[in-house]
Amino acid sequence: GRIGVVAVTAGPGVTNTVTAVKNAQMAESPVLLLAGAAASLQKGRGALQDMDQLSLFRSLCKASLSVRAVRDIVPTLRQAIATAQSGTPGPVFVELPIDVLYPFHVVEKEIGGTKSARGLWGKVVQWYLQNYLRNLFAGAWEPQEVTPLPVSMPLATEDEVG
């Protein structure tokens, strides 16, 4: 009656869970599969272990979700847990890009670019990267709802028992 939680790395870590997730689906077991992913800016650009993980799990899971900003981690996990446990229980996949998981100063250092951009194109790229960073962490330090989720145990009606 409890949810199982699995955390794996991107790419091969994710693909190695396919059989287990299918078994969880067939057994109607609530499972939360948390997977790393390439940084958001590098998705679809040949980054290490970058693949379309969401598509892989769409047919195996009740939901396949991706966190796009730090502020969305808690709401996405709450939604995923509720989905896995609601109705007919089953697995849910949540993708967490690495830039969403790292602290601000680490991500800023990695994507900050040069501080003295040259030319118009350099200034546009610098503006884009700084705007991306601000959006990625916007609202990250705001209080989030962290109370336990309500547990719903559906009971059979008399017609279903009889």
From TrEMBL:
A single Gene Ontology biological process assigned to it is: L-valine biosynthetic process
CDD domains the UniProt entry points to: TPP_PYR_POX_like
Please, which domain of life does this record's source organism belong to?
Answer: Eukaryota
Task: Look up the record and name the cofactor or cofactors this protein needs.
Answer: thiamine diphosphate
User: What is an example of a Pfam family matching this protein?
Assistant: TPP_enzyme_N
Which residues does the UniProt record annotate as the domain Thiamine pyrophosphate enzyme N-terminal TPP-binding? 1-56
The UniProt GO MF terms for this protein read: acetolactate synthase activity; flavin adenine dinucleotide binding; thiamine pyrophosphate binding
InterPro entries, A to Z: THDP-binding, Thiamin_PyroP_enz_TPP-bd_dom, TPP_enz
Question: What does the entry list under GO cellular component?
Answer: acetolactate synthase complex
Protein family membership: Belongs to the TPP enzyme family.
Q: Read off the PANTHER family from this record.
A: 2-HYDROXYACYL-COA LYASE 2, THIAMINE PYROPHOSPHATE ENZYMES
Record protein name field: ILVBL protein
